[in-house]
């Protein structure tokens, strides 16, 4: 099973409520999109992610040609993550 690791600056995107995300680089987003053929739904890709010592299941959202990894509030608290922080995340497809 492929595991991808990347660094990202935590960004905010406001929908009905503010959310924090770790944007994947464009080249990695393209690679993940190709690998996720058949498991995407509404453009989202289900993954198991890890930031620091915290592993969590989520679905990445497509936005402006790349995927955004949602950083759940429980992960933000456990890893002391805030808007603008730099993180290293790893993801694998959830099949």
From TrEMBL:
InterPro entries recorded: AF2212/PG0164-like_sf (IPR037079), DUF1905 (IPR015018)
Matches recorded under Gene3D superfamilies: AF2212/PG0164-like
UniProt cross-references to Pfam families, sorted A to Z: DUF1905
Name used for this protein in its record: DUF1905 domain-containing protein
């Amino acid at each position: 099973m492929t595991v991808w690791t990347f660094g990202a600056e935590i960004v905010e995107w406001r929908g009905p409520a503010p959310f924090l995300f770790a944007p994947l680089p464009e080249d990695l987003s393209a690679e993940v999109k190709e690998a996720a053929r058949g498991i995407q739904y509404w453009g989202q890709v289900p993954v198991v992610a890890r930031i620091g010592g915290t592993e969590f299941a989520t679905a990445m959202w497509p936005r402006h040609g790349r995927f955004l990894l949602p950083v759940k509030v429980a992960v933000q608290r456990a890893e002391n993550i805030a808007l603008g922080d730099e993180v290293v995340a790893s993801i694998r497809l959830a099949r």
